[in-house]
Specification:
Length: 101
């Protein structure tokens, strides 16, 4: 919800959200890879994959916290009440993202 709201605001750069979306998709692929590793019981690659996933998630979180959220907070402050209402009404069971795990 925040990325589309940010992207539709006037005078915003699309680069930060584009990069964060790409990194998020990469994390989803890593989780899918982890599921395959677990299903095949390939314990040799499990720890290496977990470490890589953890590093990617930390990097993503730091970028979002240090870069996007300060910018987004400033840009989206005027639509704060509307965004909060949408977040409260959000129903995760209706999401269309499929993880294929």
């Amino acid at each position: 919800m925040l990325y589309p709201a940010y992207e539709s605001a006037p005078h915003t750069l699309q680069g930060p959200t584009t990069a964060l979306r790409e990194e998020y998709s990469s994390i989803v692929r890593l989780i899918q890879d982890m599921a395959r590793i677990i299903k095949t019981r390939n314990s040799e690659h499990l720890l290496e994959s977990l470490v890589h996933l953890e590093n990617q998630m930390i990097k993503y979180h730091e970028k979002e916290e240090d870069m996007f959220l300060p910018m987004g907070s400033h840009i989206l402050n005027t639509s704060r009440d509307e965004l909060l209402r949408k977040l409260h009404e959000f129903d995760a069971s209706t999401t269309t993202r499929k993880w294929n795990i």
